[in-house]
Structure to design on (263 residues):
């Protein structure tokens, strides 16, 4: 059995007499250490799928199993990083990470161990220098890095990334993508990332899950990205495998499953 097993998952939101079937028959298996991206047009249900894995939303049909345990509620084994950081503004960078560390390791690590674990994770995203700053005093990219440190500090089985770099400028985004690849290489985490960015998906992923348009969206195709790691964006710009993968995703999104604006 795979590390994460999503079987025949469907999700219908119901309100009063009306209901919307957002996802239908989602089947996906993810192995430990894989980096998987989910791409699809706006509104197709990517965040809904991520929320189901996070346990923030309940499946309507089918089931999700993570390491032999059914997912039906949120838990520290699945940390989520959202597009807009969710740091608490009245706490410092250090205190924000500490909040998660205290919750997960309050009983199993001593205060000294917790302190060094917080600093390890801030160092990992190169934010230790800003440990005493509050979120309003640091840039958007820095806030995202602290959010990633906080998520990693929970030592989750799976890191769920919902367009983590979507609100950042292109250069900051590229920098964080490189850091994310470095972290993935060093820690070997299992990561699932939603993105709208084809280059980001190809650069970071082992596999790209392409979703059809909703309603009742499902997985249209899964593309393996057979590029060696570590990956360097400048070298890949002219790499034939990279360009082939990029073209396959573009064709899926803009030829076979074009976005049609709802009336
Ligand atoms: N709690 C909810 N109640 C009712 N409908 C919902 C709920 N959450 C999401 N939806 C609907 O489900 C559909 C998919 O939304 P979702 O946010 O998952 O899409 P998405 O692919 O992540 O979109 P985007 O790329 O624009 O972020 C939308 O039509 C949305 O209105």
């Amino acid at each position: 059995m795979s590390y994460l097993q999503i079987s025949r998952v469907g999700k219908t939101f119901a309100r009063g007499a009306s209901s919307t079937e957002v996802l239908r028959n989602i089947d996906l298996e993810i192995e430990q250490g894989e980096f998987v991206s989910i791409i699809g047009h706006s509104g197709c249900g990517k965040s809904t799928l991520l929320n189901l894995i996070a346990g923030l939303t309940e499946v309507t049909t089918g089931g999700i199993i993570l390491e032999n345990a059914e997912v039906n509620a949120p838990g520290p084994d699945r940390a989520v990083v959202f597009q807009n950081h969710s740091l608490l503004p009245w706490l410092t960078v250090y205190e924000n990470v500490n909040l998660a560390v205290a919750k997960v390791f309050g009983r199993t690590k001593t205060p000294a161990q917790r302190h060094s674990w917080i600093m390890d994770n801030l160092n990992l995203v190169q934010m230790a220098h800003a440990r005493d700053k509050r979120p309003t005093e640091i840039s958007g990219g820095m806030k995202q890095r602290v959010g990633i440190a906080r998520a990693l500090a929970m030592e989750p089985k799976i890191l769920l990334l919902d367009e983590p770099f979507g609100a950042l400028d292109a250069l900051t985004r590229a920098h964080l993508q490189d850091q994310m690849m470095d972290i993935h290489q060093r820690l070997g985490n299992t990561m699932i990332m939603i993105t709208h960015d084809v280059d980001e998906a190809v650069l970071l992923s082992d596999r790209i899950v392409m979703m059809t348009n909703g309603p009742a969206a499902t997985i249209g195709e899964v593309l393996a990205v057979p590029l060696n790691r570590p990956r360097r964006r400048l070298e890949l710009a002219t790499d034939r495998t990279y360009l082939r993968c990029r073209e396959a995703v573009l064709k899926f999104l803009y030829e076979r499953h074009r976005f049609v604006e709802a009336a």
Observations:
- Helices lie at 46-54, 93-105, 111-124, 140-153, 170-187, 198-204, 233-236, 240-256.
- The longest strand covers residues 18-30.
- The beta strands are 4-15, 18-30, 35-39, 61-66, 69-70, 78-81, 158-162, 190-194, 207-211, 219-224.
